[in-house]
Design brief:
80% of the residues lie in helices and 0% in strands. The chain is flat and about 65 Å long.
Length: 153
């Protein structure tokens, strides 16, 4: 059972790394081509740096995941979510990016708590219950926090 969980964690980690690499490769190619253009004497303007902050990469990843969710499952009430985001003061956050962050939370929270539980020495039925409870909690928690922030304003 524990071996199965370790293999599952390894596969999830590999999948996340591959997705992050897919986003980074496109940017790396563009920077390399701009470097080749500069070698011929043409200077690119407007390109500040080849490196992007981690926040930008995470936003792109969340946006892509959110767009995939909307395409696969329909609108997911984007209009209502947009109103809640505006009420909470998150004017520049698109609903699809927020949905992507919800999905990331639903995936990362059970994995992280499972890892902590295994590191603490617990196993068995506790892990099954932990994953069964924290996955839906990970999905609902960002929306609950959004509603609380909007209610405070």
């Amino acid at each position: 059972m524990i071996l199965f969980l370790f293999v599952a964690l390894l596969l999830v980690g590999t999948a996340v790394a591959m997705i992050a690499r897919a986003f980074a490769v496109g940017r790396t190619r563009a920077v390399r081509h701009l470097g080749q253009i500069q070698a011929y004497g043409y200077a690119a303007t407007g390109v500040e740096s080849a490196r992007r902050p981690a926040r930008g990469v995470l936003d792109d990843l969340a946006g892509a995941i959110g767009a995939t969710l909307v395409e696969r499952f329909g609108s997911m009430r984007e209009g209502e979510l947009r109103k809640q985001l505006i009420a909470a003061g998150l004017y520049k956050t698109p609903p699809r990016r927020f949905l992507g962050y919800q999905a990331l939370s639903a995936a990362v929270l059970p994995v992280a708590l499972t890892w902590f539980t295994i590191a603490a020495g617990a196993a068995g039925a506790l892990l099954v219950v932990l994953v069964a409870v924290t996955a839906p909690l990970g999905w609902m928690l960002p929306r609950i926090l959004l509603r609380r922030i909007a209610a405070r304003r």
